[in-house]
Amino acid sequence: MLGLRARIGLTQTGLANFLGISRRAVGDWESGSTYPKTEHLKQFISLAIDHQAFQDGEESQEIRALWKAAHQKVLLDEAWLSSLTHPMTSPRISPSMEPRVDWSDALAVPVFYGRDWEMNLLTEWVVKERCRVVSIVGLGGIGKSALSVTLMHRVAKHFDVIIWRSLRDLPDYGLLLDSLLQAAAPHALGKENKSVELRQSVFMEFLRGHRVLLVLDNLESVLMEGKSAGHFLPEYEGLGRLLRISSETEHQSCMLITS
Asked: What does DSSP assign to residue 193?
């Protein structure tokens, strides 16, 4: 379990949040002092499958070995195992392969002129300096969205996952977070992660374990008018916390914001 968790890219706390249990329980499993319940073990195996943490071609054998080592009181459901391992045809993410992209309603920018200085600076920040949060700020209509879309195409090869989201016309942060998890880590949308805090924790763990470029367009749509900088609408205060955590904690991803 320890080896699989490491390959998934989760901390003990991140896995505990995903399963809805305590961090101590995960530590006890990995030390062999206790064993997981069947439903928790199946959730963990599904998570490992989603992240392709098992050796290629050895998924079934490794899952059977893990099931036996975990001292389960019920036999492994072979039909369930087959449903997990049968579609294992998608390639592993690697720097030389195409990233997984969710453009959503991003602008189509077939032709882009100028802005060479800005493009080179943004590429330096996003790719070489690995800045965790980058903002593009300016008056409406000057091409911020077009610039960010063009940048996404330019730096795509440096990321595992690329996500674009416009913050216009979204009712609250919870739905935005669900949308991000659907694109990045759909396994985290199960009933065990109902709270926004737990879903946000899982999303942050994904940003730590993968190289993700997340573009959030039109941040001004979720800010309060007439207030000083940084005051979010009540239903979007969670986004403010996410941005703060993203800027203050270590991870290998980048959030690009336009406003």
From this structure: G
Strand order across the 254-258 sheet: 100-102, 161-166, 212-217, 254-258, 133-136
Helices (H), 70-211: 78-85, 116-123, 144-155, 173-184, 196-209
The residues spanned by each domain of the chain are: 2-85, 100-258
Provide φ and ψ at 185, rounded to 5°. Answer: -145, 75
The model's pLDDT over 154-203, given as tens digits with 9 standing for 90+, comes to 888 888 888 988 888 776 888 888 888 888 877 666 644 568 888 888 88
pLDDT 10s digits, 93-115: 444 456 778 766 666 655 666 77
Quote the tokens at residue 217.
Answer: 């367009």
Straight-line distance from the first to the last Cα atom of the chain, in angstroms, rounded to the nearest whole number: 43
Contact, 178 vs 189, CB < 8 A? yes
C-beta of residue 200 within 8 angstroms of C-beta of residue 251: no
Residue 106 identity (one-letter amino acid): A
Fold designation for 100-258: Rossmann fold (3.40.50)
List C-alpha distances in Å: 120 to 69, 108, 128, 152, 153: 52, 21, 11, 13, 13
pTM for the model stands at 0.60
Q: What is the mean pLDDT of the chain?
A: 82
3-state secondary structure of 212: strand
